[in-house]
Design brief:
This protein is mainly α. The protein has three helices and no strands. α1 runs antiparallel to α2 and α1 packs antiparallel against α3. The longest helix is centred in the N-terminal third of the chain and has 68 residues. The two termini are 19 Å apart.
Length: 140
């Protein structure tokens, strides 16, 4: 019968360690959420404003390219004008590529922003259920 109390004590000790381990993980998860969430939100807002400015730039480039293409209507197009039209078209392509990259980054940030609270919420129900076991284990 001396082995039974030792086995109960060992099981209770393991349960306490699991509870402490879960509580530590939950605390760590909440701490990381507190650290990363503002940074993710700040990056998200910066990406959003950058995307808006990229769209405005793209629209302006399209307007300038259209105006430049209308200029050489008389005679042969000027080589300088042609060069500027090509440069603007290249810049417009680059802006489009950058805009696509920014859009992908923002989508990832939005997914991350939605996933982090879900992960923390999934872990929170474990903590209250473990807390009473700790209190009853400590009072025994």
């Amino acid at each position: 019968m001396a082995t039974e109390p030792a086995a109960v004590e060992s099981a209770s000790s393991k349960a306490l360690q699991n509870t402490v381990s879960r509580a530590s993980r939950d605390l760590l998860a909440e701490g990381l959420l507190g650290v990363f969430k503002p940074a993710v939100q700040q990056v998200d807002s910066c990406v959003q404003s950058l995307r808006e400015s990229q769209l405005e730039l793209r629209q302006q480039l399209e307007t300038v390219a259209l105006e430049l293409s209308k200029c050489p209507t008389q005679g042969e197009p000027d080589s300088r004008t042609e060069m500027y039209i090509k440069k603007i078209n290249n810049i417009r392509r680059k802006v489009t590529i950058i805009n696509n990259v920014l859009q992908n980054a923002q989508e990832r940030l939005n997914k991350l922003n939605k996933q982090v609270p879900k992960d923390v919420d999934e872990q929170k129900p474990k903590q209250p259920a473990a807390a009473p076991a700790t209190a009853s284990g400590a009072s025994s």
